[in-house]
Amino acid sequence: MKYVDFFKHVFPFSKLAERDLITVAENCSEMECKKGEIIFSQGEAYKGHLFVVFHGLVELRLKGDKIVILGYRGEGDLLGEDAFVSGDNYSYEAYAVEETKLLAIPDKVLERFSAKYPFFYSFIASLITKRLEVFFKELSEVKDTKHVPSFFTKRLGEVFRYRKPIYVFDDVHVKDIAKIMDREKVSAVLVIDRNETIKGIVTERDIIVKFLSRNYGDTAKAVMSFPLIKKKLQDSCYEAVVEMIKKGIRHVVVEDEGKILGIVELTDLMEDEAVAYLGILTDIERAKSLKDIKRHSYQIVKLIEGLLQSGISAREICEIITYINDETTKKVIELTIEEVGRPPCDFCFMVLGSHGRKEQTIRTDQDNALIYEDADASEYFKVLADRLINALDAVGFSKCPAKVMVSNEEWRGTHQEWMRRLHDLFVNPVPEKILRFSIIFDRRVLWGNQNMESDFQKAFEEGVQEHPGFIARLGKIASEKKPPIGIFGNFIVEKSGEHKNELDVKLRAVLPIVESVRVLCLVHGITKTNTFERLEELKNKGALPEDLANEVYFAYDFILKLRLKNHIRLINEGKQPHNYINPNRLENIERKLLKECFAAIYKIQREALKQSGGIYVV
């Protein structure tokens, strides 16, 4: 009874019934740890308990050639959850930073709650997914930290060193600015007007290029660069570098809650992996032919392989992949237009599906659509579309087997033609048609007139409001792809053929999450396309319980990472990437987590069906 009140304030114990909470409190034992004591070692056999920090601080370490700090656990945090779930040895070392008291709960006590409180086990599994999953498989791969591309994991706050920024008024002479920069040992100053409003930045490069060339004036206002690029401490280094390269600048202003903290230079952010990444982007930008673009495929695979080792989330990896694919596609469009000739009217090229959601893994099939302004230009856009699809195929984007591409006249047309297609979809929503056109709900403009897509979105929203039964049908379809898990918790795999003993993670895990979350967003009028952003928005609006939103978020990230690892493995084996995985090839912890992911999929499918007005069929 001694620790009942404590557990009442520790999630997930706080959600247990009173009598079960008492059972936990009565069966836990105390463990006092001195400062500097090793609570358990990496590779040590599981002690048979889940630990909860009562007071103190514990550092989690991964030991290899160098010690990697995974994080810290304080009052109310769980410890040893990886071994509790898997029953295997501890995957990291737990070190008492200060005098610490732990409560050790026998796993036999907790196991009886797994059926009664499914969220309990799911919460622990989600912790592993979020914090530690990257370190569980072949820990030796992480030993050589020289190969971890920290550039992609770092935030600006990690490289930024505070130094009070130097300000000059906009009418100060450039020669005086040069003296100030020399005295203060800085390469840039911020420019303000007499009301102390920031107007721009003057760098050494501005002075050399603009002042010494005599083509500009001789004051700060005349040579400054503007507008400023501002970044927050939480922003990633790679995003900052990409923006700096694209805009041809070498400095960004760092701010926190609107307050200017200082300036970061491009050289502060550059590391070997940054150079490699930017080299890919720079080479794509400079490409003069499709062959120039094609040769970077191998570099991209190696980049992704490094990202998987770094601990970066699947969400971030997919965003990086998508950014590279965006730039590649834009360059292909540019080269194709140069070949075909300038378009006779405005048009809008959209990427669909995983590309539209920014959730691409390596390079997937093409999925795209096109809207153009003038019906008389149909022949031009037919030629453009055919050549564009062939060009994209030539650089590594395979043609879509279902022909969801602008070369298919169903996926290009004027605004009026698209309105007719939408109308037909709403008034005659047969499953085959919904399945074929639902990919259009996950779209993003990559080239052309953004307003044309905005008009499409407005018409789509009106159609959804006028035909409420449409969403119910979508909900039913989303619930039909059941996760491949049996009633006794066994994986349901292919019984024969090329993929015997394997399961399709795209068809049975990725798509059910994507489609269910999409349905919920349609119900609540959420227009975001990225699945992670959709889940965050659903949670923020109260449209989805926080626990379920987090559970599905972590499940989706984990499944995408499994898919990425599988693709890289197949490529390294000289095979064509596919979406089938063999559960028996996974580590113990990965199999456990995958089962938890499938449980989360069942929940989100039921929720989507309930909120959309459909009926769930087991």
TrEMBL record:
What the entry lists under CDD domains is as follows: CAP_ED (cd00038), NT_GlnE_GlnD_like (cd05401)
Database matches in InterPro entries = CBS_dom, CBS_dom_sf, cNMP-bd_dom, cNMP-bd_dom_sf, Diverse_CBS-Domain, DUF294_put_nucleoTrafse_sb-bd, GlnD_Uridyltrans_N, NT_sf
Ranges for the Cyclic nucleotide-binding domain? 12-113
Q: Does the keyword NADP apply?
A: no
Name the keywords, alphabetized. CBS domain
Q: Kindly indicate where the leader peptide sits in this chain.
A: none
Which GO molecular function annotations are given, in alphabetical order?
[protein-PII] uridylyltransferase activity
**Domain CBS per the UniProt entry, residue ranges:** 159-219, 224-284
Task: Note whether Amino-acid biosynthesis occurs among the keywords.
Answer: no
Q: Which Pfam families match?
A: CBS, cNMP_binding, DUF294, DUF294_C
Q: What is this protein called?
A: CBS domain-containing protein
The record lists the organism as Thermosulfidibacter takaii (strain DSM 17441 / JCM 13301 / NBRC 103674 / ABI70S6)
